[in-house]
Structures are given as structure tokens and as C-alpha cells.
Amino acid sequence: MNMSELIVIGYPDEETAAKVIDELQAAQRELLVDLDDAAIITRNQRGKLKVTTTDHLVAGATLGGMFWGMLIGLLFLAPVAGLAIGAMVGAATGGLTRLGIKDDFKQQVTDLVQPGTSAILAVVRKITPDKVIEEISPYGGTVLRTSLSYEQEEQLISALHQGAERPAA
Known about the structure:
The chain is an alpha+beta fold. The protein has one domain (3-165). The protein contains 6 helices and 5 strands, in the order βαββαααβαβα. The longest helix has 16 residues, at 150-165. Mean pLDDT is 74; it is low at 81-91 and 163-169.
């Protein structure tokens, strides 16, 4: 069974995640990591979340802004600017649990991304851990990870796409 991992790496400032994503993309070009997709989340000092998707950066990215907007919206229970979440949140909130994303993981992510910090969220299919860790370890960071089976990943994508087609409440 294919497993993907949702990996979150948090940093104590607003800039580091953007630097580390460059390292991950270099590792992807060297075939050390197979990123399905990734996003950078920044929380400014006032607590406002900003999401930068990397769909233009990760070759063949399949998830895109809608996926990240919904996932981050659900993790933080906060609408992400520019995305009409409306009825989707109600439908999908229970979805995180059904998909095996446990409440404690959600809480850990929320605790990690405090005002004035940044994080990378990445869905990773394959990784050569020692090589990738060597590339990104100089930046420090706190790593959280949860495994998604291929079926769970498909369910999540499917739930998000269904939500995208519903009119906002």
C-alpha cells in the first residue's frame, strides 16, 4: 500500500520556511524526495495566516491552492483569505478525523504556528531521509508528521474537490 506523509516543519521566524522550501525543491530535483505538493504558511505578529502554495514550483504538483487552503483552514479553524469555505468546513471538519489526521496532530500544528512564525506543509510520497535531513538540518525547525494511506489522500482530495463545487453558505 502506498503511503504519503503529511509533514509539517515549523520555524521560529517568518522567513526560514521560504528558505527551506528552496532546499526541498533542490532535493526534489536530485530525486532525494518526491514531493506531491508543498505550501508555506506564515503567521505574522498580528496572527494573520498567509499561505504560499508551491504549485508553480513543485513539478507536477497535483494538490494546488484549494487543497492547501482547505487543509490549513481545517487545521487552524480559520478561513484562509480568498477561499470561500462556507458549507465546506462543516462537511470536511469531521473529515480530518476520518482521514486519520488526529486531533492531537491538529493541536500540535496549531501550537507550532504561533504569531511571528512560519512552517512548511508538505505531502511527501518518497524520501531519502538522511540526505534530506542533512540538507535542511542547518535551519533547525520542529517536525510533525502523520501518515496518509493512498486511499486517505484520495479521500481528502475528493472531499476538497466536492467542497469546491458546492455554493458557499
